[in-house]
């Protein structure tokens, strides 16, 4: 332990810093965590002090592992090791203090007062992905660190809302290249976050962290911790998340606080797609750098519709000025009598509402709970339709799912050309000028076909008229 001499902190100093361990701020897997103030290089620094308890099962090995791995790391999205104490029976690790606590504390399903906006959630998971990407892909000498216990309670948030990975006691170090990024690993970690493959084999790779991170992504989207039962009796798990995604009904378990007014459609689709891929079997699972890139794109899409990152959680009071009592809306629409449009998930009514002292003609859209959330039903169905259309196109069976009212009128050549460019838009992503050119050619083919059919119809009609005249 001589190489860490500059990190050693006397027990007496830690005891003073925590006021004899009087302010407990949490309970980790291996012991309590305390808040303290420690004098470091002449400056008073707020710190978090993890005091290991042998009764919890963490021994010298895990203690040394955490010090070894953290002492060599300096990254904005990894918690900083301040020092440690190893005197007699005391094993203590001192970290930088994360003022805003851990991510799990903000996942309160349906509670607006203690939750995060969608933009804040995206920023946090992007930060966490950056930290994990650093461990997997950017360490010197081809070193790789597999965290092995990625979960929301191990993602800490500092005063500037920067997220940092923490708790490296179970981590393993290996090397990349030549098939060496595999480690012998017993099925450790937290139930609900551990990939199925690790429970069947002792061979662990970086993919085990990606799977755990996928669970985190769904927890963040749904505002639910995995394996916890909420008021709607749904318990979030990998199986549940995958089922709801595959069936196109993911909107049903999204945190209602963000579902109703915050998520950009592009952001939602990009995010949910990569979250799902993280839970796929190991051989198909993306690497963390791919996940990070997708999350950054999701964040970019969201910033286009809500460019500023709030520094506080959203509150109902912010919307009070726009709220209209139901009784007034009921009167304005004469008890919802004049329906002018019926949608799949809502009705639209005409009415007259007194606004700022004058009557204004208004449209009132009334959504029904039993219909679910229209926007996310729409998004999920679009995403599901894309998968179905892709499969039918690849198998040459696209005509089986075409609108029957169109099928008998369509020219086979124009159909082939249209479906081909549609498929390319989802895969090769051609330039829009090329798409326009293809569509114009398709339109020309279809117009020529329709003109030909029209002339043919006129010819048949003319021949029938001549025949009728001759019969007279």
TrEMBL record:
The keyword ATP-binding appears for this protein: yes
A GO molecular-function descriptor: protein serine/threonine kinase activity
InterPro entries, sorted: ANXUR1/2-like, Kinase-like_dom_sf, Prot_kinase_dom, Ser-Thr/Tyr_kinase_cat_dom, Ser/Thr_kinase_AS
Keywords: ATP-binding, Kinase, Nucleotide-binding, Serine/threonine-protein kinase, Transferase
Domain Protein kinase span(s) in chain numbering: 19-299
Keyword Kinase applies: yes
GO cellular component, one term: plasmodesma
UniProt name for this protein: Protein kinase domain-containing protein
Source organism: Ambrosia artemisiifolia (Common ragweed)
Organism ancestry: Eukaryota, Viridiplantae, Streptophyta, Embryophyta, Tracheophyta
